[in-house]
Amino acid sequence: MPLKCCLWTASSRVIGCIKMAQIIDTHAHYTDEAFDVDRLALLAEMPQKGVSHIVTAGSGMGSSAMAVELSHRFPFVYAAVGIHPGELDDITEEYTTQLATWYADEKVIAIGELGLDYHYEDGFPRELQLQRLEQQLQLAKELDAPVIFHDRDAHADTLEILKKYRPKGVVHCFSGSAEMAQEIVALGMFIGLGGAVTFKGAKRPLSVAASVPLDRLVLETDCPYMAPVPHRGHRNDSSLIVHVADVIAPLRGLTVDELLTVTGQNAFALFPKMK
Asked: Which CATH fold topology does 21-270 show?
């Protein structure tokens, strides 16, 4: 059932109350310590805020286990399990076996968050990142599972490895160019966009939002990070996707409701195990 919701601009001017389609957040981190004080209460409120589905992604073995646990506690929460390039020390000897065991669970719908992150000088060596990434991409191939791919300042290597393995899935929190987005879509993948489209001077995300094929676009929060304007600097949560949709919808000649409906349908195509 549609939810009546009010949207506000960054200056706290009301846009208007509209009946909205249900919100599907394709990438969140409700295992993050930022939610320790009220995690369960906050998630319990999400259906009343119009959120129908949440994918909470693990970034290491510990957070992946917790994501699975949350997916069992809340019927609208689904889990992704994987090793983020910034948490390569959080693995066991047979970590891919455990990932495969988790993926057999009906509430676990993707392998990830995996990928490459070259942003930090003191980050894990690129060779190790590529090794762990290829292990997980090979596993996803064997399981016929979609992946959730993280790419930060690693665009060239990201494209190269995606072309090599051609996984199903999404490049989340996409930060590349519109041209790169087209190459990724040509490989059969989806593009995930979130709060960055609302930031001042966000030319590249807006260019991607305006040009990516509509049937390959999904919305996300990456919460508790990347809160959209007018909540930038505060903790993000799934209900705030409405602000992302409010920016992207006019770029595509759609209402917010229409955009949420289309991207919601795309989310089900991206994650076939999600019901």
From this structure: TIM Barrel (3.20.20)
